[in-house]
Amino acid sequence: MDDTYDVVVIGAGPGGEVLADRIVRAGLTAAVVEAEAVGGECSYWACVPSKALLRPGAALESARSVAGAREAVTGALDPAAVLARRDRFTARGDDSGQADWLRGAGITLVRGHGRLAGERRVAVTTAAGGLRTLSARRAVVLSPGTEAARPSVPGLDGIGAWTSREATAAEAVPARLVVIGGGVVACEMATAWASLGSAVTLLVRDQALLNGWEPCAAEEVARGLTGLGVTIRFGVSATRAARDARTRAVTVETDDGAALVCDEVLLAVGRRPRTADLGLDSVGLPAGSWLPVDDTCRVTSLDGDWLYAVGDVNRRAPLTHMAKYQARTCAAAIAERAAGRRPDTGRWQPWNAHADGVAAAQAVFTRPEIARVGLTERAARDAGMAVRAVEYRIDDVAGAALHADGYRGHAKLVIDESRRVVVGCTFTGPAATELIHTATVAVVGEVPIERLWHAVPAFPTVSEVWLRLFEAYGL
């Protein structure tokens, strides 16, 4: 068997799949090494199952928000049907369909745990315990993703605490759920399980949810969670946890002296790179580290043009769609170098992943939904920009009032006054996640606001908020 390829990829998540496909399309050969399921975290334990769990509650709320429709709605969500629908999307972890797609695209799939074994070499330990070594003529690309971080709390390791994987794959609704954390995973999972009937308590170390978001978004999410019956305890940390061997109930003690009894505990305190056993030490890099890269996704802490990293592991924009974006640009850069050309630094070249630093859109499917792109007002000011922030209540837009009775939403633009362009945008409200791409185009394209003024939104749509924002700005 010839185990030499132009490119060897470790990790068959969204980034790894897209990169290998682009490499083959460029006329090169590629092998992808995967120890778990082809499709990665997103397909089975993150984006796809979480949205499958969240959508039924949002759909039910949407129907109930319109007079004439709400009268036709009776009863609550059917948890069994919701979980069954989720399982259809995740195929219960069966990756045969995605593995077949890889092979059909002309990509070699190697099952097993891959580790670097020196320059341009990858050692694969197969499930049967065998060893297979792959060589790369052009490049090795690391796309191992991340895993849930675990807080150092006595007893947590012994209670079978959930991470995002268990939270999105659970087979039954816990009667009582304690969530440790206040970020995106914590808020989305609290929303999903509360919608399905769990009594959810959030333990948030900080004084607000969603650190790094605009305060208006964090406040709307907190209000929405409270409306779903979620108890949010700010400024509180867990200090100890124990599971009763007889009742199976878990007691979580906190630093304010409380003792919370629940059925499951979800840890949602961040992510860490899956690089502890990636063989980084074989090429002089520290095990367990993040992998900083340049705009072609080449690992900058190593000499040469042969090692790349795409997706969450490079810590630039830990989002599935940005992993795919990085994969496309990285593949283009590898192909350029393979052809003997040096990718130039032109900002709009296909091998230059600059947008992940300035326009990484993020959608959060809480109730209400929130979405953002670019910089928050605080981040823009911290960067030294002369900015002006403009805000508008989406409730006052005619299209929003028609969309839902009692529609509640907020819009905020951050405008760089020196260039007269939008550098950041945040939306909250029903279907806010569907509004954000327009803002993404404005931020990436650096479209002058005087020109955006002539992009007239259709009436009566929620998008008419753009007109109101520019009127508030003074146009």
TrEMBL record:
Pfam families xref list: Pyr_redox_2, Pyr_redox_dim
Keyword Flavoprotein annotated: yes
Cofactor field: FAD
Residues covered by the FAD/NAD(P)-binding domain: 5-327
InterPro entries: Class-I_Pyr_Nuc-Dis_Oxidored, FAD/NAD-bd_sf, FAD/NAD-binding_dom, FAD/NAD-linked_Rdtase_dimer_sf, Pyr_nuc-diS_OxRdtase, Pyr_nucl-diS_OxRdtase_dimer
SUPFAM superfamilies the UniProt entry points to: FAD/NAD(P)-binding domain, FAD/NAD-linked reductases, dimerisation (C-terminal) domain
Keyword Flavoprotein: yes
Keywords: FAD, Flavoprotein, NAD
Residues annotated as domain Pyridine nucleotide-disulphide oxidoreductase dimerisation: 361-466
Sequence similarity: Belongs to the class-I pyridine nucleotide-disulfide oxidoreductase family.
Name of the protein this chain belongs to: NAD(P)/FAD-dependent oxidoreductase
